[in-house]
Every structure is written in C-alpha cells, then in structure tokens.
Design brief:
The structure is a single chain. With 475 residues, the chain is α/β, with parallel strands linked by helices. It has 16 helices and 18 strands. The protein folds into two domains: 254 residues, Glycogen Phosphorylase B (Rossmann fold), CATH 3.40.50; 153 residues, Rossmann fold. The strands form four sheets. Strands 1-4-3-2-6-7-9-10 form an eight-stranded mixed β-sheet, sandwiched between helices. A six-stranded parallel β-sheet has the order 15-12-11-16-17-18, sandwiched between helices. It has a two-stranded antiparallel sheet with strand order 5-8. Strand 9, helix 9 and strand 10 form a beta-alpha-beta unit. Helix 2 packs across helix 16, helix 6 packs parallel to helix 7 and helix 6 runs parallel beside helix 8. The longest helix has 32 residues. The protein starts with a helix and ends in an 18-residue tail after the last helix. The C terminus is likely disordered.
Length: 475
C-alpha cells in the first residue's frame, strides 16, 4: 500500500485476508459506518465473499462530517475488508452559491414550497417555466459534484491497487457516479469492471423534484452508455430491470444479469408482543410512498370493528414525518386516524430491528417504479409478522413476492386493503401467530452471493495469472 492509500485508510479488518486471496476493489458511496440502507447490500455480500476466502477493498465517501454513524455495522464487516475514504469537494460555482444565496434569500420574496417530491420522465420532458431552469441547474450541479468525487475516487483506487493482483473492480450505486469512478480505474488497470445497479440509472421512472430535468436524464444516459459498453458484467436487482436494460442496450444484452437483494442471517431480536395489533413501517416516506391508502383503509376497519388505539396502532419511524411537503400528522388528521398513528425519527440499525421485531404487521408503502423492490422487503420477510405490501400487480415487488404469504395489494384499492386488515386483525384476535414470509429460505442473500462469485470468476481467462488464486468453493 502506498502513501496515498495509507492516508485514506479509514478501517482495516483486525484479521487481514490470507496471502494470495482473490481480491475485489469496490467503489460505493454509501458503506458502513454510513447508516444509509444503500450500503447494506455490499456490507452483507462482502461477508459471503470473505467466507469463501475473498478479500474486499472499498473506496467510499468521507465519514468525518457524517452524522448518525453506526459503528455496529463496522463490527459486522468480515475478515479482509479495508475501507478507504474520498472526501466530497464542492465545485467553485457551488462555493460561490453558498456565499451569495443567504443574501439573495433576504432580497427575493420566498416562493411557496413545491407540492410534489418527484416527477415521472414524461412529466420531466413536458414541463417548462422558470422552475425547469432551477431543476436544470441542480441537475448540472449534482453531476458536476459527483464527477469530481468519481475522479478522485478513481485515483485513490489506483493507489489502493498499487500493482497488487485484483480479480475485478466492482461498482455499486446509486449514487451512480461510483460506476464512473470504477470505469476509470478499471480502464487504467486493465481489470474487468462489474457494474452493480441497485436501482436503475437513466431508466429511473421518477426523479426527485429538485433535479427532475431533461439535463439529468441525458447526462445519466451519456455516462451509463459509456459504462455499460466498457463493463464486463452488469447486474440488476430484478428481472424487469434486467429486461429494460437489455432492451436499452441490445449490443450489451448478453452481459446484463440479475443479482437480487436478499435476506441476511444476522441474529434477530426476540419478538415482543402485547395485546395491540401494531402495524409498523421503518424507512423513508418520500416520492410516491403515500401513507393515505393505508390510513384510509385503517379508518374503515376501526369503524367496522369498533377499535381503539389500545387495539390497533400504526407506527412509522425513520424519515416519516412528511410526505410531499405535507406533515404526516396532517395526513393522519385528514383521514381521521390521528389517535391511531405514531411517528418517530431515525434509529440506529439495532434499535430499528427491535422495532420491527415488535410488529404484528409490517407495512411497505407504494412506489411506482416497476423495476425496483424496496430494500426493506428483504428485511421484513425474516420477521414472524404479517406483511402488507402496497404494490401494483405488475411491479417487480409483486413478482418477487408471488407465491408467498405476503399480502400484496394494489394501493388504489382501499376496499381490498381494508378487507386484508380486517382478516389479519381477526386472526390476531383469535390468537393466531404469523410465520416469517422468508422462513423457507427462498429470499436468502447467500444464493445471490454465490451466483455473483461464479459470474465474476468466469470473467478471468484461465491463462490469466490473476485467476490462479481465484479458485473458490461455491458449494
């Protein structure tokens, strides 16, 4: 390891990898101790790789100014992992904006806040006006800022490699400019690049309102097409996302595969139940995750069964206090369930798991992305609780949960939602105990990790010296 890599080293496993272990270099912006759920996929995939004798070096964001760091997630990292940090650097224009903007805010009358959290691609390309200029600026700033980070990350990745054997360079996003960092590093080192897209990039169906600009879509497509063209393997989370990518890039269709998310084997807290039917949600209420349908259905059940908050409660934690700039408490009041709804803030992961363990029913709110499955689904399936999943029948979420005991309901069908809640409440009142949806192991991440190891190993020609130490037992 050279001086540049040593100065950027944030964490190294107390037990180093075995000499000659097949090594991966991973570019990912969110990684432990960052509490963001985006880092969980490779935190856990890394454990299965390490279990088969692999070593993983990680190039990620700088954690020095990150609030809410979760050191327990560092403790779960496996043998042979090293984590290197790259700080974010603000573009010159952004630094000027930060100086000038407070002055402008005093001079320019405040505009009303936006009424939507996100726009569809159709809406993005059809809307104009002054706000579209603001969105274009924010989109340009995001790509400019992220490209600065990607360039610095690629340079650090080269320093981490420092001539050591490496089987493949992997990138995981969003944020998707991690893929550009990996492309630059892989091209320079002549190492296969594996693109792991947890969510679509240019094919995203909805974009956060501040950056929802045609400029963002075009820039994403430009970077993505170059990255896909040079990649040795592209993995998507769902079959529908894989099929969409194959259609978008037919010349690269042969190298686009599915590696789903999965459930992990970390110990679960004991289930703590009382006499109350507790519907619980942990996550972020944003974009299209509207809580109104479940509030409306709950009101019907409350009236029909004459329930009180001692009998049924809806509990939301995380970034759950607002939806589309409307306080969640206001939405609950409008739907007549104020006394039946409780809202909490973000929790450390262990505390979140304890919260989920106390649920009678776990709730997944709707999203209108046909290509993605909420990461929380793979956590929910481990708990002995009923699962209420608001998703369209044609969605990737419905596809993943088909033939399971999860209640997957069209979010526009309040009547069916109310019927499901009534059925499950009556089962609860009779003393019935739900079984974990994933108790049969069908959602385990281990299977996906083994498939990914196989695909990566096949990238290296038999006569390539890097592959001599890459033989692993995948049994």
């Amino acid at each position: 390891m050279n001086a540049a890599a040593r100065s950027a080293l944030f964490y190294a496993s107390p037990t180093p990898a075995a000499p000659g272990a097949p090594r991966l270099l991973l570019f990912i912006y969110n990684f432990p101790p960052d509490p963001a759920v985006g880092g969980l996929r490779w935190q856990e995939l890394g454990r299965y790789f390490a279990g088969e004798g692999w070593a993983v070096d990680v190039v990620t964001r700088d954690f020095s100014e990150l609030s809410g760091k979760d050191p327990q997630r560092l403790a779960r990292l496996p043998v042979g992992v090293r984590v290197f940090c790259v700080p974010d650097r603000e573009p010159l224009v952004g630094r000027i904006q930060k100086l000038v903007w407070p002055i402008l805010r005093r001079l320019v009358p405040q505009r009303s806040s936006q009424k939507v959290d996100a726009l569809s691609q159709r809406e993005i390309f059809s809307q104009g006006g002054p706000r579209s200029i603001v969105r274009a600026y924010h989109a340009w700033m995001e790509f400019t800022r992220d490209s600065i980070w990607a360039s610095a990350a690629a340079s650090l990745g080269h320093a981490v490699l420092n001539g050591e054997p490496c089987l493949a360079i992997v990138s995981s996003g969003p944020p998707h400019m991690a893929h550009e960092a990996a492309r630059l590093a892989a091209t320079r080192a002549g190492i296969p690049h594996v693109v792991d897209m947890r969510d679509p990039w240019s094919l995203v169906q909805r974009l956060r309102e501040p950056i929802a600009s045609p400029m963002w879509i075009r820039r994403a497509r430009a970077y993505e097409s170059r990255i896909v063209s040079s990649a040795a393997l592209v993995t998507m989370n769902t079959q529908s996302a894989r099929d969409a990518m194959r259609a978008a890039y037919p010349e690269s269709a042969h190298k686009v595969e599915v590696i789903r998310n999965g459930s992990d084997d970390e110990p679960l807290p004991p289930a703590r139940r009382d006499g109350c039917f507790r519907i619980r949600f942990a996550g972020w209420i944003y974009m299209d995750r509207d809580p109104r349908p479940v509030f409306r259905a709950a009101r019907r059940v409350i009236d029909q069964l004459q329930l009180t908050p001692d009998n049924l409660i809806i509990e939301l934690v995380g970034h759950a206090n607002r939806y589309a700039n409307t306080p969640t408490t206001q939405i609950a009041e409008e739907e007549g369930v104020t006394s039946f709804v409780r809202i909490g803030g973000r929790m450390p992961r262990q505390q979140t798991m304890e919260f989920l363990a106390g649920a009678t029913m776990l709730l997944s709110l709707p999203q209108d992305s046909d290509y993605a499955v909420p990461a929380k689904i793979y956590e929910y399936v481990r708990f002995p609780a009923w699962m209420l999943v608001l998703a369209m029948p044609t969605s990737a979420t419905a596809e993943v949960l088909q033939d399971s005991d999860a209640d997957v309901v069209d979010p526009t069908d309040v009547e069916t939602l109310a019927a499901v809640l009534t059925m499950r409440y009556r089962q609860f009142a009779r003393g019935e105990t739900p079984r974990a949806i994933g108790a049969d192991g069908r959602f385990d991440r281990r299977v996906q990790a083994q498939r990914l190891m196989t695909l990566i190993t096949r990238l290296v020609p038999p006569d390539d010296q890097r592959g001599e130490s890459a033989t692993v037992s995948l049994g």
